[in-house]
């Protein structure tokens, strides 16, 4: 199974996908994955858990989840009360980047979300009604597809992002779901020590649990096994370094904790179907 995915969209000039009022179930949900798009998820009803970055969150009515690109995530809807949600996928290239003032940019919401590792916004009742009307309007525009409907969808999406940015400024969220204290601690430890070997034995000892208990609980809570999680996190970090630095491939392999350059090539190609050098070339 490949965890790093691209959102399918036939229109290269309008990289935007919209899934309206979709009922989730554990059987239909993707396992842990990442993609190059931004994602906004609004929950109408139901319950579940959302694992994003290194955190667990409640999924319930009125919650919005912001998922920046290259962020590992997985929704886990309740099997008895599944979540109904609308999802917007879009490329960061669709966000207006003209800075008309020095305090706000449409990318700020996602940049700050990733920087502070805080992916959830709880909407008050009036904001829920407004959000639902905006999402319905986007749905209608796409259904009727009248001239200019793509521009209309884009304008409404920008308004949603602006509204969410203002709500985040006004409110402080504290709705994280900590399933197991040691899981949260170990995810934070992994994130700050990716350049190290991080063996199962070492992490289990640090968590003060047996290796078998660690493996079972880790996979149950995070959704994938330790090795797959480490590989995914390391590939995400490698992608960022390949784009943003001039480090050599061997330097990046070492920084990201791969056993060797050949191991780095093998894992990177497994997830992205290309070598690190090829990925860097097409991003230039």
Automatic annotation (TrEMBL):
The keyword Transcription applies. Residues 184-282 form the HTH araC/xylS-type domain. One of its GO terms (molecular function) is DNA-binding transcription factor activity. Keywords: DNA-binding, Transcription, Transcription regulation. It holds the Pfam family HTH_18. PANTHER family: ARAC-FAMILY TRANSCRIPTIONAL REGULATOR, HTH-TYPE TRANSCRIPTIONAL REGULATOR EXSA. This is AraC family transcriptional regulator.
